[in-house]
Amino acid sequence: xxxxxxxxxxxxxxxxxxxxxxxxxxxxxxxxxxxxxxxxxxxxxxxxxxxxxxxxxxxxxxxxxxxxxxxxxxxxxxxxxxxxxxxxxxxxxxxxxxxxxxxxxxxxxxxxxxxxxxxxxxxxxxxxxxxxxxxxxxxxxxxxxxxxxxxxxxxxxxxxxxxxxxxxxxxxxxxxxxxxxxxxxxxxxxxxxxxxxxxxxxxxxxxxxxxxxxxxxxxxxxxxxxxxxxxxxxxxxxxxxxxxxxxxxxxxxxxxxxxxxxxxxxxxxxxxxxxxxxxxxxxxxxxxxxxxx
Length: 293
Hints:
Blueprint: E1 2-6, H1 20-28, E2 30-33, H2 39-46, E3 56-68, E4 71-75, H3 84-98, E5 102-108, E6 111-116, H4 139-157, H5 160-167, E7 175-182, E8 194-197, H6 200-208, H7 220-226, E9 232-236, H8 242-255, E10 260-265, E11 270-275
Parallel strand pairs: 1-9, 1-10, 8-9
Antiparallel strand pairs: 2-11, 3-4, 3-6, 3-7, 5-6, 10-11
């Protein structure tokens, strides 16, 4: 079995914050360099690109917005929890208000996708980062973007789900951050039997290609237990969890459960592949992840 993983760049961390299993796989594996690219760009190229379709798709991230003097603070899922029923009810309210203009679907309670004809051309928008909101400025697209965000806030402000959350002392889900606008191709193909991800673009491409496309589990052990014993399988990670993902993968490679592991870090323009024999290259010592930039 050949396991491939798309790995996001690690967040800034103290120099003594190490990820030993991932570091070992990168050190002992055979590395290759390419032009840095976003995960979305990498996925589109890996699935053959293709002629784009007519609909714009986006990542729709539920957030809690709070006014703070001269700025608006945003809090993402992770700092608060959303139940499945709450996510479904909020998405139904948004869809009922916007009709054909905007349709939001909860892939997971905290992971939503959107199909829209409103915000075409905003493919440069990035995921929310930090607490202070950074909205686009200038031009018709930015004006439409501000109006859309405000309209979504109005829909969610008085929703019974949020009234109940506030009564329990929980943050209201009173906003949706839309980002990563792009058009999926009409057709796609790739070398994998399955693609496991929470990323809407990865799931959409896998579906177009006729591949199995389950959501991302909590650990590599869960992922491996679901896979057949052969074939080529891709997982698109949204965070670097050494104990949950790379340590079990390293153990599976050592035990022969996995024949090859390929790691893709597209934003660093780095790929590394390793088979069991590569792990014996003891002279290639682990280094901090930043050393591989």
